[in-house]
Specification:
The complex is a heterodimer of chains A (105) and B (142). Chain A contains five helices and three strands. Chain A has 105 residues and is an alpha+beta fold. Chain A has a three-stranded antiparallel beta sheet. In chain A, β2 and β3 form a beta hairpin. In chain A, α2 crosses α4. The radius of gyration of chain A is 21 Å and the shape is elongated. The relative contact order of chain A is 0.15. The mean pLDDT of chain A is 84. In chain B, α1 crosses α2. A six-stranded antiparallel beta sheet of chain B has the order 1-6-5-4-3-2, with helices on one face. Chain B is globular, with a radius of gyration of 16 Å. Chain B is α+β, with helices and mostly antiparallel strands and 142 residues long. The chains are: A alpha+beta (105), B alpha+beta (142). At the A-B interface, α1, α2 and α5 of A face β1, α1, α2, β6 and α3 of B.
């Protein structure tokens, strides 16, 4: 299975986990408690997120704390940014088209 | 998380009926948007167009999802042969003689499973350059 940021965010549960962890680090237990699905299923998502480099797990005493690595999300932001550039260009073109029409009316 | 749709707003110096025509009239769309064989602002209407570079083109498949005359137009937007689907929504509000346009593109993250190469390829080779710079220059010229 591919392991990159795009794989990481392809799943809604994983997106939600990332969203939770960007606010503050949490123990694995706290993460699992927030979801209806089984603890092993959450563990699997957390493992995939770790393998994709989006979260890190630190052991503190008996607890395992998960925290997100938001810099990895930049790859996704760059992807969305492409669309922003695209639509900005399109709306510029629309504006110019309407201006040109103004002149001919 | 970057799965929220992105939104671009613009106040256009044209009355709402002309903006609506620019969004829905095939000949006018061809001047600033894409060249389509046909376009009809009717829910369920399907259309496609090609975008990309000389090396790699992508067939965009769209289907109209909502039409409110001079108010709202939306359609799905996906790529032939690739996973994922997104939706583009144009919303218009009259502001005197001008028109406020809100463009929302949601569901882009659903293309994520096509991987980073798809993301890169899709906009490679100057497509953005073409529509961002060349087209505006073209339409500015009378």
């Amino acid at each position: 299975m591919r392991r990159d940021v795009f794989q990481a965010i392809a799943d809604p549960t994983r997106r939600e986990i990332i969203g939770m962890l960007t606010q503050n680090p949490m123990t694995l237990n706290t993460v699992a408690e927030k979801f209806e699905i089984s603890r092993p299923a959450i563990s699997k998502h957390v493992r995939i997120l770790t393998e994709c480099g989006l979260i890190t797990i630190n052991k503190q005493g008996r607890e395992r704390f998960c925290s997100s690595k938001p810099e990895k999300l930049k790859e996704v932001a760059d992807w969305a940014e492409k669309y922003r550039i695209f639509w900005t260009g399109k709306l510029d073109a629309l504006e110019n088209f309407l201006e040109a029409e103004n002149k001919t009316i | 998380m970057d799965t929220t749709p992105f939104v671009i707003e613009r106040t256009l110096n044209a009355p709402i009926n002309r903006v609506w025509e620019a969004l829905t009239d095939r000949d006018k769309m061809a001047k600033w948007y894409f060249e389509l064989d046909r376009f009809e602002p009717v829910v369920g209407f399907e259309f496609s167009f090609t975008g990309g570079s000389e090396q790699q083109t992508y067939v965009h498949l769209c289907q109209v999802t909502a039409v409110e005359f001079e108010k709202k137009l939306s359609y799905t937007w996906r790529y032939e042969g690739y996973a994922g689907n997104s939706e583009v929504i144009f919303e218009l509000v009259a502001e005197g003689d001008k028109t406020h346009l809100t463009l929302t593109h949601k569901g882009l993250h659903s293309f994520a499973e096509n991987g980073p190469d798809f993301a890169k390829e899709c906009f490679a080779g100057g497509w953005t350059e073409l529509v961002g710079n060349l087209l505006p220059k073209y339409v500015e010229t009378p």
